[in-house]
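Structure ticket #2291
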Amino acid sequence: MLQINFIKDNKEEVIKRLAIKNFKDAESIITNAINIDSERRNAQKESDEVKAEANALAKQVGELMKSGKKEEAETIKAKTADLKLKEKQIDEILKAKEEEIQALLVQVPNLPNITVPLGKTPEDNLTTFEHGEKPTLHANAQPHWDLAAKYNLIDFELGVKLTGAGFPVYKGKGARLQRALINYFLDKAIAAGYMEVQPPILVNADSGYGTGQLPDKEGQMYFVGEDNLYLIPTAEVPITNIYRDVILKESELPIKNCGYTPCFRREAGSYGKDVRGLNRLHQFDKIEIVQIANPEKSYEILEEMREYVAGLLKELGLPFRILKLCGGDMSFASALTYDMEVWSAAQKRWLEVSSVSNFESFQTNRLKCRYKGNDGKTQLAHSLNGSALALPRIVASLLENNQTENRIKIPEVLVKYTGFDMIN
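Resolution: structure written out below.
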C-alpha cells in the first residue's frame, strides 16, 4: 500500500505512474484520499489542542485542591469533563477519517518502476533475453496431456471424478517426477543461501491483506467460510507474512527464505485450449523464493533472483525467454516483474513458469515490516519474491520437448532424484 504522505507530496507523479498500470480511478481516489487526510489532520490538531487544554486544567485542579480551594477546583473539573467528552467525539471522527483513507488506499495498486514498459496487454511485454534452441520433434509428437495418458503419468479424468476440473492425479513415474522436481528446486534454493520453511497452506485475512491478495484478488482465492481462512494462491503469502509487525536489524538483511507448497487458485473464467492439461490448474505445486531487503539493494537483488531462476531452466535444458512486463500486465502489488516462459514444443507456444518481482515497500507498508538502520532510524524494508519454480508447465514442457517415438528422456540433473532416466 502506498503511503499517504508520499501520495500527498507527489500527487501528479503518482497519478501519472498509475496510468502506466491502466488504473482508471487514480485521480479521483488519490484526490479523495488527500482531501480526507487533510480533514484527518485538522481533526488530529483539534484533538491535540483539546487534550493539552484538558491536561492543563487537570493540573490546575490538583493545585487548587492542595491549596484548599475546592469550589474553584470543582468548577474547573466540570469544564475538564466537557473537554474529555469533546476529545472522545473528535477521536471518533479521527478514527472514521483514518478508516476512510485506508479504504481508498487499499484500492490503489503499487507504482510501476520508471523502467516498466508502456503497454496494456501481454503482447506489449518486452523480451529481454532468450536462451536455447527450440527442439524439432518427430512427426507423431504429442502434447503433454496425450503423453500423460500414453505413459500413465497423470490422470485428468480421475481428478475430475475426485474433485473437479483443474485437480489432476499424478501416478507412478508422473508422481515421482513431481517429487523429484520439488526436491531438486528446494536443494538448489538451499544451496543458494535460502532457508527452507514449511508454512501453513491456510492463512487468515490479515495475511492476505499484508501481501496484497486481499481485497484485490478475493474472488480468485478459495475461502473456508466456517473458519474465515483462505487457501494460499502462492507460498509468497505465508512466507512474507512471517515478517508482519516485525522490526529487523539492518545487519539481518537480506533475509532469504524458500518454501514448497501446493497452491490454490480459482482461475474464474478460464476456458479453451489454453487451459488444457497442465496449462492452467486450480491446484498445483510450486517452490517460492522470498527476500526481505534493504531498499538500496532491492533492485540488485531482483536481478540476482532473475538470474537464479534462469539458471534452473538452463540446467533443465529447457528453451526459455525472459520478459519485462508492461504496466498493463503487471500484478496489483508489483513495482517491476520479470516473467520466465519455457517453450512447449508440441503445443508450439510459450508457457509462463515463473514471475520474479520487486514490491518495494508496497507489501511491507501493509505488513509493517521495518528495519532499524545503523543510524538508529526505523524504515520500511523492501520485499521480493519469485517462483523457483511452478511445476505444472515445467512438467508439460519436459514431457513434450524430450519425447521420442517410444520414450521420454529425463534431464540429467533430475535422474538422481527420479531414480530413472527414461519414461517408457
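Closing remark: The chain has a mean pLDDT of 94.
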